[in-house]
Amino acid sequence: MKATVEWVDGVSFAAQSETGHRVVMDGPPDLGGRDLGPRPMEMLLMGMGGCASFDVLSMLKKSRQDVESCVAELDAERADAVPAVFTKIHLKFIVSGRKLKEAHVKRAVSLSAEKYCSASIMMEAAGVEVSHSYELVELAE
């Protein structure tokens, strides 16, 4: 896997993935940015949420759950000192659908956390305290 990050101006950078997708990262105005995109650490957090969500949704679809929506809410804490690394990250999955089986959702979240989500597992290996929870929302038929 490869990517490039190119300085645009100020504290704005354009990143491009090997598959050709681009995203702009920028800083806040007080640091010379124009607030045109997420901060790099926000990108890490969003990437982790995307990785875990992909796993959870994939497993729920394979277990034939009628999922209408799957939202991962991430809440992170960072160290006060430089480097301001993540110290804690909590992922809460809000899964909406019809006749969802809690056991399937619980298992999907657990398997993502313990076996499949490379980003979560990498964060834990780096010393970040990562936790997971879920909420089921039953939709009317």
Sequence of strands across the biggest β-sheet: 1-2-3
Question: What top-tier CATH class of the largest domain fits best?
Answer: Alpha Beta
**What is the gyration radius calculated from CA atoms?**
17 Å
CATH architecture of the largest domain: 2-Layer Sandwich
Estimate percent helicity: 25-40%
Main beta-sheet strand count, sense and barrel state? 3 strands, antiparallel
Shape: elongated
Tell me the number of strands. 6
CATH superfamily of the largest domain: K homology (KH) domain
End-to-end Cα distance: 43 Å
Give, in order, the helices and strands. EEEHEEHHE
Mean pLDDT: 96
The share of residues in extended strands comes to 35-45%
Overall number of domains: 2
Judged by helices, strands and strand pairing, the structural class is: alpha+beta
Organism: Oceanicoccus sagamiensis
InterPro entries: KH_dom-like_a/b, OsmC/Ohr_fam, OsmC/Ohrsf
Pfam family, one: OsmC
Protein name: Osmotically inducible protein C
